[in-house]
Design brief:
single chain; mainly alpha; 3 helices; 2 strands; about 5% strand
């Protein structure tokens, strides 16, 4: 069993990762909707496509659609054994 302090450290690390993802999207975006309105989503998922963490920036429509897209499409299109450490999957077509 994981103790509560270690769990909190892991949780803060996950939140930091997804917030950095969102910040990178905002910083590199060419569209005003993303840069100024935060119309985006960023998350970390497990091998089964379950969302573990989501960025605090984002819209509910994007976040829900992203979760469905990863679970129903990305996991099937990119099986875990086809990925290498450091691989990143980015989609703009949920």
């Amino acid at each position: 069993m994981i103790d509560s302090i270690l769990l909190e450290v892991f949780w803060k690390r996950l939140i930091s990762i997804v917030n950095e993802q969102a910040a990178a999207l905002i910083h590199s975006s060419f569209t005003t909707l993303v840069r100024e309105a935060g119309d985006l989503s960023a998350g970390v998922f497990d091998a089964q496509g379950r969302m573990l963490a989501q960025a605090v920036t984002g819209t509910p429509g994007h976040i829900n659609t992203m979760a469905n897209c990863v679970r129903d499409h990305v996991v099937k299109q990119f099986p875990i054994d086809s990925l290498q450490p450091g691989d990143t999957i980015i989609t703009n077509d949920p």
